[in-house]
Write a sequence for this structure.
């Protein structure tokens, strides 16, 4: 699948504000600073589509981008960043859980994981919640250019090991690097399959 048009549609503070049309949502989420904006820009081939910030936790709304007038790419707020107040963190998590569990437009969710880190409890807890609620999701490992291919493979295996404690079947997994464009073709091909195109 190729993307020829990507445009910002709207930002929503609550799920009642998301677009009311028939286009399906393919959403992206992860811990703050996981490289989500860079990945979205790499996938769409648009440098400034999603705002890349030096300060983690900047995305505080659900951002819809209309892709080729056929589907939405959705940028969700990051979770688990310590510098926001507890109240704000509560609001973020309500917005995230409302969208992920209640938004009927959500067709597939990609959970982004920094390939350089040991499996993080917050990621595993979030993934467990998705499983308990039957939300269709896949995992994208980001920042693969920061590791050698061998280290990257080991890191993915470690994560699979952590998942194996609760999962019999693994979700689809992709290894990406926004800096090198790695994983772009595979992720877009998968989205194409998801949307039945």
């Amino acid at each position: 699948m190729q993307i020829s048009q990507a445009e910002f549609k709207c930002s929503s503070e609550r799920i009642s504000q998301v677009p009311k049309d028939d286009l399906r949502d393919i959403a992206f989420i992860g811990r703050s600073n996981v490289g989500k904006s860079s990945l979205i820009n790499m996938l769409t081939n648009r440098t400034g589509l999603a705002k890349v910030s030096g300060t983690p936790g900047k995305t505080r709304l659900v951002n819809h981008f209309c892709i080729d007038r056929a589907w939405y790419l959705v940028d969700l707020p990051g979770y688990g960043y310590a510098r926001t107040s507890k109240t704000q963190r509560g609001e973020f998590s309500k917005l995230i859980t409302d969208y992920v569990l209640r938004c009927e437009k959500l067709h597939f969710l990609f959970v982004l994981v920094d390939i350089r880190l040991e499996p993080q409890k917050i990621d595993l807890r979030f993934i467990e919640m998705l499983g308990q609620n039957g939300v269709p999701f896949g995992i994208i490992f980001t920042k693969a250019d920061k590791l050698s291919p061998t280290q990257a493979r080991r890191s993915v295996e470690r994560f699979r090991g952590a998942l194996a404690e609760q999962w019999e079947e693994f979700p689809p997994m992709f290894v990406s690097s926004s800096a090198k464009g790695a994983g772009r073709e595979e992720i877009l091909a998968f989205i194409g399959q998801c949307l039945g195109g």
User: Anything to note?
Assistant: The CA atoms of residues 145 and 177 lie 6 Å apart. The chain has five helices and seven strands. The mean pLDDT is 90. Helices lie at 36-44, 86-102, 121-132, 149-164, 184-194.
